[in-house]
Amino acid sequence: MRTRGLLIIGIAAIGASLLLGVAGLATGSDRWSTHAPGGMMNRIFGAGSGDVGMDRAVTIAQDVAASYSSGGLVADEVIEFTDNYYASIREKGTGIGAFEILIDRVTGNVTREPGPDMMWNAKYSVMRPGMMGGFSLIGSGPMTVSGQQAQAIAQHWLDANHAGTKANSPDPFYGYYTVDFGTTGQLVGMLSVNGYTGQVWYHSWHGSFIELRDLGA
Q1: Which of 4, 57, 117, 131 is 20–30 Å from 211 (CA)?
Q2: How many CB atoms within 10 Å of residue 40?
Q3: What pLDDT, on a 0 to 100 scale, did the predictor assign at position 16?
Q4: 3-state secondary structure (DSSP) of residue 214
Q5: What pLDDT digit, counting tens, does each position of 35-61 carry?
Q6: CA 2 – CA 10 distance, rounded (Å)
Q7: H or E segment at 62?
Q8: Which 3 state secondary structure label does DSSP give 48?
Q9: In the beta sheet, which residues pair with residue 85?
């Protein structure tokens, strides 16, 4: 279960062309900007009427975790945003994040989250070695960026891009960290930090925060 500093309520691959600019670890580096090349729209699912609701989204996330062939995975939390539901799937034994999914608010369809979960996940990535012409940002072995460093990197990026927001304690996955950020009493959004390079990847596809359901995993 991720540690939070805020009080808050509560598998087709999406294009790797969402790849963002590198944010170096060097002190004083200005390379903290992120972008989505090619004018790709931020919304992952199409708009439509209706909503599966938080209870159904939780069940879907739990079913995804239970269906993993090797077992040992649980749904850690589900977050409702205006454009999708987000769920974190975690290894029950180690407490480390396994992967992240998005759930369509209208249909309940599930996809792996684009960006870090696909490109940086060193254990559960759906990207096969050699894809994208051999280009990969996935490292191997223990992450060289600590959780404390990842939080500092995230805060540096936020200060430049979302002034007035604060980075929470990073949630570790294999190869990267995901960081919630917000203002006092309210979650605003999420970003990820590569565990080997310090690159920042902003989650631009969620929309606005609505509710969080902590599943106690």
Answers
A1: 117
A2: 15
A3: 32
A4: strand
A5: 332 233 466 666 667 799 999 999 999
A6: 14
A7: helix 54-66
A8: coil
A9: 80, 103
Question: For 148, which DSSP code?
Answer: H
What pLDDT is recorded for position 50?
Answer: 79
CA distance 120 to 9: 29
pTM of the predicted model as reported, rounded to 2 decimal places? 0.77
Tokens 């060289």 belong to which residue?
144
Buried-state track 149-176, b at ≥16 Cβ within 10 A, e below 16: bbbbbbbbbbeeebeebbbbbbbbbbbb
Query: Structural domain boundaries of the chain?
Result: 16-214
Query: CA-CA distances (angstroms) from residue 128 to 123, 132, 136?
Result: 11, 9, 10
In this structure, are residues 102 and 84 in contact, taking their beta carbons and an 8 Å threshold?
yes
| The Cα angle at residue 209 between residues 89 and 155, in degrees rounded to 5 | 80
Instruction: Please give the structure tokens belonging to residue 143.
Output: 């992450």
Amino acid identity of residue 194, one-letter, is N
**Alpha-carbon torsion angle 70, 112, 75, 64, nearest 10:** -60
Residue 85 in contact with residue 102, Cβ under 8 Å? yes
Per-residue buried b or exposed e for 42-61, using 16+ beta carbons within 10 Å of the residue's own CB: eebbeeeeeebebeebbebb
- Cα(154)–Cα(181) distance, integer angstroms: 9
* Structure-block tokens of residue 200: 């920042």
Mean pLDDT of all residues in 181-200: 95
